């Protein structure tokens, strides 16, 4: 009896109550039909992201060649503009400085081109196929094959990659065991290169973009001319003698020469604007990426391992334990191993100059800090 009374009391009386009642009722129906005990927020977001993952997996390798072509075109354009505008500008100012800039600029360019070519063309390294891998620590569910430590499956390349860092569309290649150093040095030298261009091109760029907007000063040098101010306050050369009326007293009426930017100055203006945008954008994008990868190298981890190590640290902290990355040998040794400055190699020959030396080990077996501390003699 009491239940019926409760129900009667709950029944909607007004239109708004009816709508609210219907809405709640519909919601309950849908929930009861779609209820899943395993549903949670991260699962739902994964499902929503699935189309993006599908697109990336299926189209990244198709777009790869276009990205590589874009990098080559942009680099070529930047270098061409340096030769065309930057070099003559410096040559007119200071010849010794120009020689110095030529040497530094070409050293940077050599490293950028070499490391880009190597990062894009050297295979990242794959686990041996149809072979017993003694070092395997797990099985790849997609390849149905054994996986050595630090190996991960790349869904774009559709295969397992040794010490995989990430798949890079700009290189159209996976970054892994064999080409990780080339990838990092490419980013580092490109960042330094853009900083170099911005530093030594700043005055020139600022002058063209903000001071004499049309660049008209270049049309007619001021040296050797009498000058006067025009209406906009610019100093302009007086190229013609004043004409006087026949009485020789009153100056004749005539129009002042109005500077018009010609096609060449417009092109220079466009080129400088392009240089400013592309170099500043690259400096921010690659600069932050280089800084992030430097942090990872200092910690002795890859981009993928950074996520794994973070969640492991959290998981063990909840159990009151401290997690330690097995491949972290201290920042100095981590950098030495990453750059391959082991076995009497030197940083000036193997880092400052292009070098094709191979990384330490075979990519299948990995030293951990525990083994390394026990076998100090085997340490490269
Ligand atoms: Zn795999
Ligand atoms: Zn890949």
TrEMBL record:
User: Which EC number(s) are documented for this chain?
Assistant: 2.3.1.225
What keywords are annotated for this sequence in UniProt?
Answer: Acyltransferase, Membrane, Transferase, Transmembrane, Transmembrane helix
Q: Which family does it belong to?
A: Belongs to the DHHC palmitoyltransferase family.
GO molecular function annotation:
palmitoyltransferase activity; protein-cysteine S-palmitoyltransferase activity
> Which residues are in the Palmitoyltransferase DHHC domain?
138-307
Q: Can you state which reaction this protein catalyses?
A: L-cysteinyl-[protein] + hexadecanoyl-CoA = S-hexadecanoyl-L-cysteinyl-[protein] + CoA
**The name this protein goes by in its record:** Palmitoyltransferase
Record text about domains: The DHHC domain is required for palmitoyltransferase activity.
Cellular component terms per the entry's GO annotation: Golgi apparatus; membrane
Record the organism.
Answer: Anopheles gambiae (African malaria mosquito)
Bilayer-spanning residue ranges: 62-86, 98-117, 183-202, 271-292
Per its UniProt record, what InterPro entries does this chain match?
Answer: Palmitoyltrfase_DHHC (IPR001594), PFA4/ZDH16/20/ERF2-like (IPR039859)
Q: How does it sit in the membrane?
A: Multi-pass membrane protein
**PANTHER family hit by this protein:** PALMITOYLTRANSFERASE ZDHHC16
Keyword Nucleus among UniProt keywords: no
Task: State where the protein is found.
Answer: Membrane
């Amino acid at each position: 009896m009491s239940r019926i009374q409760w129900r009667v009391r709950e029944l909607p009386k007004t239109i708004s109550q009816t709508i609210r009642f219907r809405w709640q009722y519909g919601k309950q129906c849908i929930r009861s039909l779609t209820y899943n005990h395993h549903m949670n927020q991260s699962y739902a977001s994964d499902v929503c992201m699935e189309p993006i993952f599908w697109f990336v997996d299926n189209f990244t390798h198709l777009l790869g060649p276009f990205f590589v072509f874009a990098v080559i075109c942009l680099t070529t354009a930047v270098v061409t503009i340096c030769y065309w505008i930057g070099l003559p500008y410096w040559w007119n100012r200071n010849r010794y400085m120009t020689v110095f800039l030529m040497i530094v600029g070409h050293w940077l360019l050599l490293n950028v081109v070499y490391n880009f070519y190597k990062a894009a063309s050297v295979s990242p390294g794959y686990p041996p196929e149809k072979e017993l891998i003694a070092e395997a620590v797990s099985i790849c569910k997609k390849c149905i094959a054994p996986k050595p430590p630090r190996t991960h499956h790349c869904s774009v390349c559709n295969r397992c990659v040794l010490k995989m860092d990430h798949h890079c569309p700009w290189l159209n290649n996976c970054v892994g065991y064999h080409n990780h150093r080339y990838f990092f040095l490419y980013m580092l030298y490109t960042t330094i290169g853009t900083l170099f261009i911005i530093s030594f091109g700043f005055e020139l760029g600022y002058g063209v973009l903000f001071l004499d907007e049309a660049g008209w000063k270049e049309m007619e040098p001021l040296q050797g001319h009498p000058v006067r101010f025009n209406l906009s306050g610019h100093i302009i050369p007086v190229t013609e003698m004043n004409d006087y009326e026949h009485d020789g007293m009153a100056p004749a009426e005539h129009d002042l020469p109005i500077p018009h930017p010609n096609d060449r100055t417009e092109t220079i203006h466009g080129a400088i604007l392009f240089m400013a945008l592309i170099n500043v954008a690259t400096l921010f994008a690659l600069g932050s990426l280089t800084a992030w990868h430097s942090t990872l190298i200092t910690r002795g981890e890859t981009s993928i391992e950074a996520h794994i190590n973070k969640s492991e640290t959290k998981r063990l902290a909840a159990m009151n334990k401290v997690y330690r990355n097995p491949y972290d040998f201290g920042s100095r040794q981590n950098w030495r191993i990453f750059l391959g400055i082991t076995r009497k190699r030197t940083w000036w020959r193997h880092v400052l100059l292009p070098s094709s030396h191979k990384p330490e080990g075979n990519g299948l077996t990995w030293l951990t800090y525990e083994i390394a501390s026990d076998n100090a003699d085997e340490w490269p």
